[in-house]
Amino acid sequence: MTIDSRLAELGITLPDAPAPAANYVPFVRSGNLLFVSGQISSGPGGLIRGRLGADMAAEAGAEAARACGLALLAQARAALGSLDKVSRVVKLTGFVNSTPEFTDQPEVVNGCSDLMVEVFGDKGRHARAAVSAPALPRGVAVEIEAIFEVE
């Protein structure tokens, strides 16, 4: 089964790969590794803003993280031409806009991690960091970057 057919089976339509918002490139390939720049939480209605522990619950944060994951997949597809060239999701690093008291960053970033496993199966299991940040660009709730092993 191709990844495109897996996405269709899951009812997932990837967004267009977002353009960089500053002086960086959206991805860099080095050998068999693809580094995808941090993707901020954005959906069909625009940016997903909020601060976990203040005006956003962990469940909504997980949805924001899933949106980051969709953008990561869109960038990988733009870089490779096809997600079938992804051999493994190596690592995700998730940043969660949260109050000092909020401690459920892992549950928030699970929104992206779960997506990678849904799409790639065991190849989607990865190393990960889920950390708090006092603020993120444009006031978004979540930003996640990824490293993929590719053919």
Helix content: 25-40%
The first-level CATH class is given as: Alpha Beta
- Strands ordered across the widest β-sheet: 1-2-7-5-6
Alpha-beta content class: alpha+beta
Number of domains: 1
Give a description of the structure.
It is a single chain. With 151 residues, the chain is α+β, with helices and mostly antiparallel strands. It has one domain (3-17, 28-150): RutC-like (60s Ribosomal Protein L30, Chain: A, 2-Layer Sandwich), CATH 3.30.1330. Helix content is 31%, strand content 29%. The protein is built from three helices and seven strands. Strands 1-2-7-5-6 form a five-stranded mixed β-sheet. Helix 2 (58-80) crosses helix 3. The chain is globular, with a radius of gyration of 14 Å. The protein starts with a helix and ends with a strand. 38% of the residues are buried. The model has no long low-confidence stretch (mean pLDDT 97).
Quick rundown:
The protein is α+β, with helices and mostly antiparallel strands.
Task: Give me some keywords for this one.
31% helix; alpha+beta; 60s Ribosomal Protein L30, Chain: A; 151 residues; 29% strand; 7 strands
Task: Reconstruct the topology from this structure.
Blueprint: H1 3-10, E1 27-30, E2 33-40, E3 42-43, E4 46-47, H2 58-80, E5 86-97, H3 105-120, E6 127-133, E7 142-150
Parallel strand pairs: 5-6
Antiparallel strand pairs: 1-2, 2-7, 3-4, 5-7
